[in-house]
Task: structure prediction
Amino acid sequence: VLLYDSRASGNCYKVRLALAHLRLVCELHEVDVVDRSGRAELLGHLNPALRVPVLVLDDGRALAESNAIISYLADGSHLAPSEPFARAQVLQWLFFEQYSHEPNIAVVIFWVAYATDPPPHAEIEARRALGHVALEAIERHLSSRSFLVAEKFTIADIALYAYTHCAQRGGFDLDRYPAIGRWLQRIAAQEGHVPMDAPQPK
Amino acid sequence: VLLYDSRASGNCYKVRLALAHLRLVCELHEVDVVDRSGRAELLGHLNPALRVPVLVLDDGRALAESNAIISYLADGSHLAPSEPFARAQVLQWLFFEQYSHEPNIAVVIFWVAYATDPPPHAEIEARRALGHVALEAIERHLSSRSFLVAEKFTIADIALYAYTHCAQRGGFDLDRYPAIGRWLQRIAAQEGHVPMDAPQPK
Result:
């Protein structure tokens, strides 16, 4: 199995973190997330959206969208509930992550930490405010729970952990979210956890 | 089963269209998508993101995010593949829809057709350009296929149909996308199809 990957991308980190918990190893192909020239040639036949991560199976079939990839990898494992409603709740958080969290938190991190030509300050502030709305929703939910779904560590936690744990790089003050703070420590303490910058196991 | 719904929302239409194909009827509770006051009181205990649609089961459990709801409803039915990789491909398109399609196409439709205080023209144009990028990705994919996944009608088609079929309301010229045009006709011709403005069956 081959993963088109980027060390700087939280979306790619989700896949590496799920692989680590599942004790799976895969070949990594690093893709530049700042210089996007050549994307169509590299990924056009693999992902219509031209983004990483993309997982390529040994028979050549390709799967894109980070949350679809971790759902596929975790299917039937301890990282995914088998009960239908809990499965749907995991999906609810995965879609929340891609609609309300990533476009605001990951994009602000990218603008602040990587972009060579970031947008005006007011636009960054507006996105950061929406990121805080997403963090407040997670904080409310976690104030009475240990994990996002079914009181078990699942791919929902992996997906939300990826860009929450490094949100401070985008100027998000996580001290405002004590339940999120405890949850981040809980996720990092799971057996099998690897940090975002961990070297790939050989 | 109760659905917090909006006739104007394509995200809600996805759920109504899936229900129609599954021959399920549910009680509808109309929620205003323009006047958003009172959202926290109405939906706060049901959906941390305070959005419709929300599905409430007879035992009171609530499920949010349109694509999680249709995944839950379609699980085990003819609208969802059972083979693991095809299931993951359906998820890939559902995440593409929420990340690359809805935030650009649905939001532009909302700004043009509903918003009382839309953003400046240049911002609408920038979003519309991103919407065309999403439509081009779908057009490339459908140029050699009848449906998005596994050559079968699935919830991936339902999810992408919702805001594509009415994209012209947001100023998107669909004549540029012949494969999408044929696919839209194919979806509307499926047995059990209902239009977005169809009255709820009694």
Remarks:
- Helices of chain B lie at 10-21, 39-43, 66-74, 84-113, 121-142, 155-164, 178-188.
- The mean pLDDT of chain B is 95.
- Chain B touches chain A at residues 48-50, 57, 61, 63-69, 71-72, 75, 84-85, 87-89, 91-92, 94-96, 98-100, 102-103, 137-138, 140-141 (CB under 8 Å).
- The CA atoms of residues 79 and 154 of chain B lie 4 Å apart.
